[in-house]
Structure prediction request, 325 residues.
Amino acid sequence: MPRILHLVDDTTPGGVMRVIDHLTTSPKLADQADHIVRIVSPTGALPAVQADVVVSHLSLSWQRLPHLIAFRARHAQLPLIHVEHSYTEAFTAQNVSARARFFTMLRLSFSLFDRVVAVSEAQGRWLQKRGLVGPSSLQVIPSAIDLSAFRAIPRQSGPVRVIGAIGRLHRQKGFDILIDAFRMLPDRDIALHIHGTGPEAAALAAGAAGDPRILFHGHTVSPVAAYSKVDLVAMPSRWEAFGLVALEARAAGRRLVCADVDGLRESGKGARFVRGASVRDWASTLAMCLTEAATSVASPDAHDSFSDSWLRMLDDVLPHKVMAA
Prediction:
């Protein structure tokens, strides 16, 4: 069978690693190829490898670029695929001041790969709109994991009383906005459960101080258990290439409130979108959710399309057609 080597430079627990784990262990994909994960330095040279296809899950930067060029030259005939897990339109607006320079880095980096995978339609449109990836190289494959355990969670049908925030405690996730918005709600019989760890933990705890309705649960060993204890999932992300939490919330039948950014716009029928990014926008939306009757949430069906799309792409780039969808 073909040997597919996945290069990873950030193993921080979270959605990206769970998607990579699914990609490399899914039975449908494993039946057609051997998938191996190799951890590499986030800043150093990339190793010489032996594989039929290399899939990059690397963070692109000017520091990384010379190593990518050297790797491409060393493996000139080897099909290379890059999955862009991070950069989006909203990321650029929020974090990049020298945008022309940033776009130049992305164009040069992406040009070294035979295929560039966008993890959402919104990200793919942005990559094309900015001329960062040619149409023949761009592949849109929305991320996925096995959702069977989430679908088995009993459906929630009562009023919203427990709001859940699940993810890394990082500025990207916007949990500071959520905490401030939640504190504006007068209801004493509601709660905000925050699951995750990260660099913003202390600042978020300080922002929640004095409100006994806000609970921090730390790292969640079982995401299924976290979803089973909440009525609504809030995603106030400042940017989000895809949004695995939205996929899981829908599979669990939980009501979903999302920021109107990037890949979160594809969170499906039944999701509510907050059009503004202010604390007041979020407070008013949450207040409405507390008074509404339960609504049905469409469960996603992403697993098979994810696997089939990867099988087709691998078949396209392999020199010998040995994959079968």
In short: The mean pLDDT is 94.
